[in-house]
């Protein structure tokens, strides 16, 4: 039993991850069996297993679960065929026999800082996700998500906000995620407070 468990773990570990033309901060982690292409990822972020992230800008301190798809390619729907063999791409076939038009430009997907993306989420290319937002598991995000909103469902809709508007505004002002590690260490007790108030924030970050 234990051997088969370890074997399963090992097999998961050795599945390759592919990171191409991307800049991943050295403090960030990409899980196994991920494809990460043309993407930037800030400090202390991670993504789990079997994620596909294409042409995205991801901030710092983001928590991205397994099976998350960001910025998947879209096939043009307004021509006779949507097949890539009619596009001038590497899928056009060996002789590019049918290639008649250039592929549409991929839109950059922006994911803010300290965003939590649940298991199995798909984020449409070009969407902007605000700082501190939460994307519930299995959501399909087709529209921009405001900072500190919690969204879920297919298509994703707002469920609630994490904090009051005054706290959200102050957090956006402070932008603690951009501070050097040394400064974060100095104010680390703030991160231990549940449901922080404006007064809490101002105590640690006097105006
Ligand atoms: C989105 C989420 C964070 C909300 O958690 P919560 O604040 O405890 O929310 P609640 O369970 O109180 O639900 C609030 C409402 O949102 C709905 N909801 C919760 N999660 C949802 C989801 N993923 N998709 C759609 N609706 C969801 C609930 O049904 C409820 O609706 P109601 O008010 O109409 O009854 C959580 O449900 C979730 O999806 N977490 C991700 C877990 C995950 O993927 N972990 C992987 C490891 S990182």
How would you characterize this protein structure?
Strand 17 and strand 18 form a beta hairpin. The protein starts with a helix and ends with a helix. It is α/β, with parallel strands linked by helices. The chain is 17% helix and 22% strand. The relative contact order is 0.09. The protein has two domains: 12-161, 3 Solenoid (UDP N-Acetylglucosamine Acyltransferase, domain 1); 163-207, no CATH class. A seven-stranded mixed sheet has the order 3-6-9-12-15-17-18, with no helix packed on it. The protein contains four helices and 18 strands. The model has no long low-confidence stretch (mean pLDDT 93). Residues 63, 65, 118-119, 134, 136-139, 150, 152-153, 159 line the site of coenzyme A (COA).
- As for the number of domains, it is 2
- CATH architectural arrangement of the largest domain: 3 Solenoid
Question: Helical content, roughly?
Answer: 10-25%
Rg value:
20 Å
Distance from N terminus to C terminus (CA atoms, Å) equals 58 Å
Which hetero compounds are present in the coordinates?
Answer: coenzyme A
CATH class term of the largest domain: Mainly Beta
Proportion of residues in extended strands: 15-25%
Q: State the major sheet.
A: 7 strands, mixed
Brief characterization of the structure:
17% of the residues lie in helices and 22% in strands. By secondary structure, it is of the alpha/beta class. The longest helix has 13 residues, at 2-14.
């Amino acid at each position: 039993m234990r051997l088969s468990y370890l074997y399963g773990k090992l097999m998961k570990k050795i599945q390759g991850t592919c990171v191409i033309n991307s800049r991943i901060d050295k403090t960030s982690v990409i899980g196994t069996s991920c494809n990460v292409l043309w993407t930037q990822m800030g400090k202390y972020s991670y993504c789990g297993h079997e994620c596909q992230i294409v042409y995205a800008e991801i901030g710092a301190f983001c928590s991205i679960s397994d099976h998350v798809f960001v910025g998947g390619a879209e096939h043009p729907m307004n021509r006779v065929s949507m097949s890539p063999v009619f596009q001038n791409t590497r899928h056009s076939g060996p002789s590019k026999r049918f290639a008649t038009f250039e592929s549409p430009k991929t839109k950059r997907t922006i994911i803010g800082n300290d965003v939590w993306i649940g298991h199995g989420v798909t984020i449409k290319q070009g969407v902007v996700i605000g700082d501190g937002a939460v994307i519930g598991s299995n959501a399909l995000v087709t529209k921009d998500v405001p900072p500190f909103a919690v969204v879920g469902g297919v298509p994703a809709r707002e469920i609630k906000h994490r904090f009051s508007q005054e706290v959200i505004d102050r957090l956006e002002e402070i932008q603690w995620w951009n501070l050097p590690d040394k400064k974060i260490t100095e104010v680390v007790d703030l991160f231990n407070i549940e449901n922080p108030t404006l007064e809490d924030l101002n105590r640690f970050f006097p105006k």
